[in-house]
Amino acid sequence: MKIGILGGGQLARMLALAGYPLGLDFMVLEPAADACAGPLSEHVTAAYDDPEGLEKLAAACGLVTYEFESVPAAAVERLGLSLPVFPPAGALATARDRNHEKTLFNELGIETAPFVEVHDLRTLKKAVAQIGLPAILKTRTLGYDGKGQQVIRSGDDLQAKWVAIGEVPAILEGLVDFDREVSIIAVRSVSGEMAFYPLAENVHHEGILRLSTCLPDDSHQPLAEDYARRVLKHMDYVGVLAIEFFQVGSHLLANEMAPRVHNSGHWTIEGAQTSQFENHLRAILDLPLGGTAPVGHAAMVNLIGELPDTSAVLQLKNTHLHLYGKMPRAGRKIGHVTVREDSERALQARLAQLQDLM
Amino acid sequence: MKIGILGGGQLARMLALAGYPLGLDFMVLEPAADACAGPLSEHVTAAYDDPEGLEKLAAACGLVTYEFESVPAAAVERLGLSLPVFPPAGALATARDRNHEKTLFNELGIETAPFVEVHDLRTLKKAVAQIGLPAILKTRTLGYDGKGQQVIRSGDDLQAKWVAIGEVPAILEGLVDFDREVSIIAVRSVSGEMAFYPLAENVHHEGILRLSTCLPDDSHQPLAEDYARRVLKHMDYVGVLAIEFFQVGSHLLANEMAPRVHNSGHWTIEGAQTSQFENHLRAILDLPLGGTAPVGHAAMVNLIGELPDTSAVLQLKNTHLHLYGKMPRAGRKIGHVTVREDSERALQARLAQLQDLM
Fold first, then answer.
1. What confidence score (pLDDT) does residue B168 get?
2. Which domains, and CATH codes, for chain B?
3. What is the pTM of this model?
């Protein structure tokens, strides 16, 4: 079967790499001529909402998925008229709007940081009074990798902050003094089978994920799985879903979810029995899900902006290089490196060696 | 860099799957329009010796490799004038001729079954007198998967056997009463770094490989590595080389070598720290070689002729499906399944479950 993907970036590329061994073929719809997934798929070079491009996808594919949550809702709707699109449109609509997303979390009994809707400067002022400072002003939609966010501290000019995020619908959220940031990669198939990967601890810098470390047997695993299960079931979800949490003591505060394969799950390619990419495909094809148990001790380091000496990276045993075929540019994710070792101690030692090459 | 591959079958497909994460792109030269590697590479649909096709490869690629040993020598020579071609032409010439191959093994002090050249019916009779029966008559070139071979037993009509292999240059080889068939996957980079995978035990049926099981810490490993090292060094070899042996007691009799990634090394995709496909690419690009240590206990089962119920296969935890995108046809390799478990015992139990689905 041919799988259509809206978006042809690194996530589409890794989906294709995981899917060929399952006997699948791929077609991506992506406006950029130099799409990462282009060389290993049929590439329809058109806007995501281009009727002709969508028609091509619908005619050639048996199923469509997407690799980013800001895919136009109209495109998903249009495709949905002629073939299955997973994850479901409802999940996409919820996940792309921070207010809907956090409201849903709370409705499902999942803790979040305190948050309030913001429409204009007046409601921003009111929100600050309600939430207190410091807090973060976040656009409701189109934010990723720290974009569309402004931290507000006591004494800051609220008007300037409002302008900085583009004067668009937003939320103000209490700044959480967290112990760790963690995420869970969950997956649910068409027929409702569910599986959960071990939590990953995530380290961000300048709003961009830098390091994800698999946490086998973490004490927060049962709570994270319980929360993820509530979301999957409520949304009748199909595919991989990532939920990011702030961990504060024994609490997990849900920060956001992504209705797709996720950067904090890249370690699963070598570090789990089945990768998140393969399991996303199995889920949307209603095939049995693959095992999610960790293989050894794994972590993933993102390559941001520029390439390290790749030969030196490959010199390190038990590391795996994943380049996306992208031109280096400041702040751009151009690849990642996975380290898999037999012990936590060996993993940390190898990560230190790797860090020296960055 | 773009890598050119002569041949677009499953080996080219798996080379491409291993190479994209290294940041490589691929172009295959392959006459079949429905080549396995076609959907994930640029596919030049032309004969292997088509001057225009070779020109395209030479113009677009930085390096050329091949996936089968019967690639026309003239094509390799022609490409070699404008860009590096690995493994080297000399290894190709030796490996494609059983007489040269076995003569080289003996010259390097590597044991083989007794063998004698056969040119015609007269020399076949002489060979039978010298080697004794039972024996195998094998064409010198173009034999694979048991094709071009005839077992001769006492009382058989020699003329009929000679006609059966096509009356072409051949060797007669003593039939070895072996304990096991094993193979080693060896790799050597441009700058001479070498690495060796654990031996695999191979089970053939009707001349076609069915099952390869990784043998961690086998007592024959040092001898196999010693033999492989002699061949790699002698041929100034670059890339992956597979050598198949008959094991008889403490002896290893070299049967044949393949100057390419090899079916008996497919278990390395999940069962070794680095796959044979990635290490072949690292070797020809003169990158540091990846670790060859086994990950758990692994075995590979070929899917021949027809597909099992793939959903039932995927239901088995710790198994990995690899389909080649080929139409099923009797005797055709259309995919393989790798099983990776934590113990030899669990591996054998899982293989038994898998066998039930075949």
1. 93
2. 2-85 (3.40.50.20), 114-174 (3.30.1490.20), 180-357 (3.30.470.20)
3. 0.95
